Amino acid sequence: MLEHGGNLRDAAREYGRPIADWIDLSTGINPHGYAAPAPDASAWHRLPEADPALAAAACAYYDAPAMLPLAGTQAAIQALPRLRAPSRVVVAAPSYAEHAHHWGQHGHHLRQMPYAQLADAVDSCDVLVICNPNNPTGERIAPELLLAWAGRMAARGGWLVVDEAFADTETHASLGPHSGQPGLIVLRSVGKFFGLAGLRLGFVAGPPALLAQLADMLGPWTVSGPAQQVALAALADTHWQGAMRDRLRGEGARLQQLLAAHGIASGGTALFQWWPEERAEAFWRHMAEAGIWVRLFRHAAHGIRLGLPPDEPAWLRLQQALTAWKKT
Length: 328
Prior knowledge:
The protein is of the alpha/beta class and 328 residues long. It has helices at residues 8-15, 42-45, 52-62, 73-79, 97-103, 143-154, 208-218, 225-236, 238-261, 280-289, 312-326; strands at 23-24, 67-70, 88-92, 109-113, 127-131, 159-163, 184-189, 202-205, 267-268, 272-276, 292-293, 295-297, 303-307. A hairpin with a 3-residue loop joins strand 9 and strand 10 (272-276).
């Protein structure tokens, strides 16, 4: 199993600090999550048959013609490689590691390529997988360019898979409105922007025939009844969504400015900042000793990713830890 952020039990065990004493900045999940309403009792007692209202709410929120709800986009990441015969696959790198991990199986020929070289790979692969914005670096590819790539790939039966897990504060760049065209598959996550990672809920937008294939592979009851009810409330709450976008954009800028004040030039999204760090392991250990859990990338992206602190005491602890690091 690949390593991910949010592993506070590992942090508590390694450093002997109770979980409650940690500030978890390792995931990029909104620390001001949507206040989930209590589900109806029926959500706990009935089999969770698919509610068409959930797919309709997702189509409205993501501005997509058709969407399939599933138990987190991880379910799609694991299933999509099984829907194709062995293919030539290019996954942008560095990126969310689960994509390459699963496309590397099932007989596919996998290459990982830097974002700067992806344009050269479009005509020599059958599947191209991109996070936009990228996780962890925050790199972006213009939607007009992605649509051009999707058209070229679809002409020969190829797929462009775009993971938009961190796109909720950049709605103008989403490919959701175009996801009905052949060969374009868009993944969206409820966990990041809404801060509801525990729901295990995501959506896939794409051509209806492909969504039907994916639904058949995943089987019945893929999204729990409580998750469906909570998501319906969150997707319909446009007032909360607008206010939260503004808040996250402001806090993202604040985090970038705080890092810059301590000599760190970072980039990212409204939900996280990332930078290549020469002493990445030492920085990670320094923060851990201060009770701040950040995401260390040891390999392809040798650097650090930081999410947003949840409150003012956490901002102060981060500032103090950065000041102490600057003195080392």
